[in-house]
Amino acid sequence: MDMRMRGWLCGLIAMGLAVGAGARVGSAQDAKRPAEIRVDLEKKVGQYEPIYRWFGFDEANYATAANGRKLLGELHAMSPVPVYIRSHHLLTSGDGTPKLKWSSTGVYSEDAQGRPVYEWKILDGIFDAYKAAGVKPMVELGFMPKDLAAKLPGKPDQPYQMHFPGDVLGGASNNPPKDYAKWQALVQAVVAHLVQRYGKSEVLTWYFEVWNEPDISYWHGTPEEYYRLYDASAAGVKAALRGARVGGPATTGPGGKGKSYAMLRGFLEHVRDTKQPLDFISFHAKGQPRISNGEVTMGINHELRDVNAGFEVIEGFPEFRNLPVILSEADPEGCAACSAKMNPANAYRNGTLYPAYTAAAYARMFQLADEHGINLIAMLSWAFEFEGRDTFEGFRSLATNGIDKPVLNFFRMAAKMGGERVKVESTDAVPLDVIRETGVRGAPDVDALATVNGRKAMVMVWNYQDTVAQDPEVGTTVVVSGVPAGVKQVQVREWRIDATHSNAYMMWKTMGSPAHPDADQRTKLESAGKLQEMGGVRAVAVKDGAVKLEETLPGESVSLYEVSW
After folding, report:
1. Which helix (H) or strand (E) holds 450?
2. Residues 297 and 332 sit within 8 Å (Cβ to Cβ)
3. What pLDDT, in 10s, does the model give residues 124-137?
């Protein structure tokens, strides 16, 4: 069968799945039947791993900027367990001045005799900022210092740094080392310094990841050269601190079953066959938003296909099945620094489409991990903040000039959940296989994720569609059963992200969209950016061991219920 015919048939199948899912739910919604969500606290499905608590960004030096420090503190404050931070350019040469998709520490250089010279000041500043905020680093070992970068054949005048926008990955900072022994010594020196500065017991709680996306132009070498880099890095980490956790390969999304898929598999084969240390496995997963009919249409199916394909690879290696798996970038698309001005498809980032998408993807990642028997510990959002830019300029970020975006409130919601995940059934959920293959292109996905921890249950409910215009408000009836016998009444609280709650962006628009809000405007926006509760605590009667909660959920919104007794 030729590729054109195969693509035509695949399109028909995908269209059938999407239309079928839409027809299944659409007629009920047309009849204004509320979505019924049933939560059974007695049916446990697995532990609630806090996979939400991981974040990352290109510009490592933003950690020491004023708003960067503020955001780090907010991330720590929201979570009852430690938050982890990953950033690029921790070993890149330079004076520490950040630019879009670039930063540096100048940690390594060589003297006239080719001997290493270490300068720790900038690197220490970044890690000190983490410590001061109470967060922990996921240490990405990259990129190549200027004096250690190999000269590529045919590129005698290759610049070290490339500038964004443009071929930002073309510089020598992404080259292999000219001397792998010197690279290993550099890694060992870095880890030894971190141990000396922050203590052995603390550094043993960190993660050391070798490089970033070596299957694309972040690495100007072959897969075999990356495997050699990994071996040298792992040896350097373990020599400095026995028991330190090292892993990789941080490859791009494997959903296309192409080069990225092959390199993830090849890396695991290499580690298995050469018996290299491996304490966790990492890869990336990305969605694919597009402009369709003049509006943003998300591509959640692309991200979930990446996750599914990566889990399939890992599932094929029984010796690694129990290792922690870290999605060290998991996002709606691939370029945090590409603003909505650069790409209109990125316009989802400021409003409620971003958190609604993230809620729908978040729950499916747990489902996929359960399906494949994967020890998933992290869904790392490659989003932080961009210092000194216009407010709500449209970067993929958690905050803008110190003002929290709606998406940050999704993570605040996720942080309130804990204990064990329990069974959820929704009449208006898009099935996992459909959302993985075609996304949410028919009726909205109205579904939930629920946990129970002692005398408290948490139920996160969302109304999500890939396209905002096709996501109407939906009535919901949430029935929480399995409340212990003898309990006659429960206390209920609700937090909400929608157009008028937990949403500084909408308030900013009513102010006239000021690029640089004044002091009074900033105070109001910072308050509007916090997670907001819908009224106060209310008492709800328990009938036959169950609680019924009825609500209208706007399009592109997320609610979190707390039910306690």
Report:
1. strand 445-453
2. no
3. 999 999 999 999 99
Contacts of 388 (CB under 8 A, 6+ apart): none
Report d(CA 305, CA 469) in Å as an integer: 25
Residue 33 in tokens: 């039947």
Digit-coded pLDDT (tens) for 263-280: 999 999 999 999 999 999
> Is residue 92 within 8 Å of 145, Cβ to Cβ?
yes
CA nearest neighbour of 416 among 447, 463, 456: 456
Question: Quick one: which of 432, 421, 551 has its CA closest to 492?
Answer: 551
d(CA 54, CA 80): 13
Token reading at 220: 């100007």
Assign 18 a pLDDT band (cuts: 50, 70, 90): very low
- Which among 149, 156, 133, 123 is positioned nearest to 82, based on CA atoms? 133
Lowest-confidence region among 24-33, 73-82, 193-202, 233-242: 24-33
Residue 50's alpha-carbon distances to 23, 54, 363, 378, 451, in angstroms, are 35, 9, 12, 7, 12
Mean pLDDT in residue range 237-243: 98
Judge whether residue 5 has pLDDT over 90: no
Contact call for residues 186 and 203 (beta carbons, < 8 A): no
Cα–Cα distance measured from residue 92 to residue 113, given in angstroms and rounded to the nearest whole number = 21
In one-letter notation, the amino acid at residue 415 is A
* 3-state DSSP assignment of residue 323: coil
The whole-number pLDDT of residue 10 equals: 38
Task: Evaluate whether 340 touches 349 at the Cβ level (below 8 Å).
Answer: yes
Asked if residue 396 lies in contact with residue 389, where contact means CB atoms within 8 angstroms, the answer is no
